[in-house]
Amino acid sequence: MNFFQVIFRGLWRRPVRTGLTVLGIAIGIAAVVALVGMASGYEKSVVDQLDTIGIDVVVSNMQGGIMPKAFDEPVRDAIASMPGVAEANATLMQMLSVEDAPMMVVYGREWDSFTWDQLKVIDGRLPRDAQENAVVLGKLAAEVLGKKTGDPIQIETGEFVVTGIVDGKSVLENGAINLSLPRFQEVSGYEGRANFVNVRVPEGTPAERVEALCREIETAHPGLRAVRATEVVGTSQGFRMAQAMSWSTSLLALIVGILGVMNTMLMSVFERKHEIGILLALGWSRARIMSLILCESAAMGFLGGVVGVALGAMTLAILEQTPYVRGFLEPDLGWPLALQAVLIAVAVGVVSGLYPAWRSSRLSPSTALQG
Amino acid sequence: MPDPEKPDGEIVYEVSALTKEFDDGRVAALRGVDLRIRQGEFVSVVGPSGCGKTTLLNMLGLLDRPTGGTLRFRGRELSALGDPAAYRARDIGFIFQSFHLLPNFTIEENVQMPMFGLPGTPRERRTRAVELLEAVGLGHRLDHLPLKLSGGERQRAAIARSLANKPAILLADEPTGNLDSKNSAHVMEILLRLREEHRVTLVMVTHDQELARHGTRTVRIKDGQVVSGE
Predict the structure, then answer these.
(1) What order do you get walking across the sheet with B201-205 strand by strand?
(2) What ipTM does this complex have?
(3) How many domains in chain B?
């Protein structure tokens, strides 16, 4: 018999209680995995999208909160004429309920702009011109809406026809509905307005120059924010809010987990007073008794972590299929997050076991032997 | 090695004016006990219920701390020890009236428990536990949980456990107190045999005068004081 078997036997003496405690931690860890996985999935989706389209600088007005506020479209021309800008185009992006789908990303893209370039047509065709009553669906969007080429589609006040299905090579692009900017402005009541200007700089422009260009754009257009594509997610208020919410919810779940394990371990120490007395009488040191209790709670944390990661992965897989998530992001559960979650769970176990372990070490053997 | 029947070895315990009070001094369990125990002795501690026999044994094993007086083990003051785990693991073996076996561990695992306090591999611990259990006639019950054994068998397992770390001293508190006369005699016979084989000093608390006669010396306690056999 080794020390680990003693730990295991300690946990196994009350399998239901141990199981419920492990489940408590597991739910907390599943919340961490699901929320953080969603947040980092969103981050990855945005980065992928910008990378795929080949945008270097994104100009927007984030004063509106999560959705950028619309501004006058001619701002794009002013930006396009700035030194160091190779190309600039305007986009109007809205999140709308489209037919039966509760929320879809709809892009009004400038006709002939580079934002159409990466859309690979897998069925049908792209719109012929900026005025055609046509929309192109990302392949995920087509799946969510149940549409195929040639089907009619209602967007806000306009009736359109799906002319093509495209592969946009990123989740956000594949989950989006695309139409020409003027048609979308018309049906959404945003005539002459846009909420993004996408900027490309000449190839080989050093990062410092791009950074300087961002500051120049912001000086020339007060109220607008210009951010390098690689920093869009990190500086986005909405993303930071989502991240803060995911971590604070996770923290609450973990506190509940800590209290659960602490309660279990305290009960276990009180119940096992007699056993602890025997072990002390047999020559076990107080440090060994403390490490037994700490290892038991850490083991519960570890088990809770492993089960929690599995539950979290299942939750993410289910969420991925819901209409609210599908097409917006691809939850990101990698080994680093799984490992981080298990380590957090073990830490929860250790922290929860500290007080019960200390209590156990204070027991007098003669009193403890009396039970 | 000293001859157990001729206990003229070194002094292992030197107890002087030992007191133990409970309840903020309102209850005195020991009132100035003086006692010397030599290597190889078998000391029977007798006296009426509540006279302080078990308290004295607990003091010797440092299961409890004295309120006053001195308690030396091989010349070393015991009450100065911070955590007496090493002393209990290396030098002492306990046998209790209620056996005090861990219910969720087999008797073989129970015998291994004291060995966690000293260096050794799991294989060594198991080999030693099996040897000891065979020596008390429980070689065929290694994988039994304590609850599946009779009282006599449980106490035999507890005796095997007390010898796990080859201690110099066995402290036995009414080892046959929970047994019928047949089991009681059997357990006592094993205890005496193992005491001789392992050449340990045995301090046994008992209220049974017949059992006390097995000792090389009988110490009588009354009202927390040694009245004879000191």
Answers:
(1) B92-95, B169-173, B201-205, B42-46, B217-222, B225-228
(2) 0.91
(3) 1
A262 within some domain: yes
Nearest CB to A278: which of B58, B61, B100?
B100
Cβ within 8 Å of A, B 36-65: 58, 61, 63-64
Q: Residue A7: give the domain boundaries.
A: 3-45+239-369
> Which of A12, A282, A285 shows the shortest C-beta gap to B113?
A282
Closest approach of chain B CAs to the CA of A65, in angstroms?
A: 60
Q: Which domain holds residue B90?
A: 11-228
Residue of A nearest to B105 (CA): A9
Q: How confident is the model at residue B4 (pLDDT cuts 50, 70, 90)?
A: very low
Q: How far does the CA of residue A288 sit from the closest CA of chain B (Å)?
A: 9
Minimum mean pLDDT range among A89-98, B3-12, B34-43: B3-12
pTM of the complete model: 0.76
**Chain A residues in contact with B63 (beta carbon < 8 A):** 280-281, 364-366, 369
Name the pLDDT band for B57 (thresholds 50, 70, 90). very high
List b or e across A282-301, with b for residues whose CB sees 16 or more CB atoms inside 10 angstroms.
bbbbbebbbbbbbbbbbbbb
Over residues B148-159, the pLDDT tens digits come to: 999 999 999 999
**Residue A298 shares a structural domain with residue A364:** yes
**Domain assignment of residue B3, yes or no:** no
Together in a domain, A252 and A341: yes
pLDDT value of position A93: 92
Give the residue on B whose Cα is nearest the Cα of A274.
B100
Q: Is residue B6 part of a domain?
A: no
Chosen for mutation from B23, B63, B101, B107 (greatest number of chain A CBs closer than 10 Å) is: B63
Judging by beta carbons within 10 Å of its beta carbon (0-12, 13-18, 19+), is residue A219 exposed, middle or buried? exposed
Residue at B5 is within a domain: no
Greater confidence (B164 vs A361) lies with B164
**pLDDT tens digits, B99-131:** 999 999 999 999 999 998 788 899 999 999 999
Q: Could you tell me if A177 and A244 lie in one domain?
A: no
Does B88 contact chain A (CB < 8 Å)?
yes
Mode of pairing for the β-strands spanning A158-167 and A134-138: parallel
d(CA A20, CA B116): 30
Residues A257 and A361 in one domain: yes
Domain count, chain A: 2
Statement to judge: residues A339 and A263 lie in one domain: yes
Neighbour-count burial of B213, counting CB atoms closer than 10 A to its CB (0-12 exposed, 13-18 middle, 19+ buried) = exposed
Which residues of chain A, if any, have pLDDT below 70? Answer: 62-66, 323-328, 371
Residue A55 lies in a domain: no
Chain B contact present for A288, CB below 8 A: yes
Torsion sign, CA atoms A318, A320, A325, A329: positive
| Residue B212 in tokens | 């006390």
Which of B56, B107, B113 to probe the A interface (max A CBs under 10 A)? B113
B136-149: per-residue pLDDT in tens? 999 999 999 999 99
Does residue A287 belong to the interface with chain B, where contact is any CB pair within 8 Å?
Answer: yes
A160 and A260 belong to one structural domain = no
In a domain, A51, yes or no: no
Amino acid B189 reads E
**Which CATH number covers residue B64?**
3.40.50.300
**So what's the pLDDT on residue A40?**
81
Same domain, A204 and A106: yes
What is the amino acid identity at position A40?
A: S
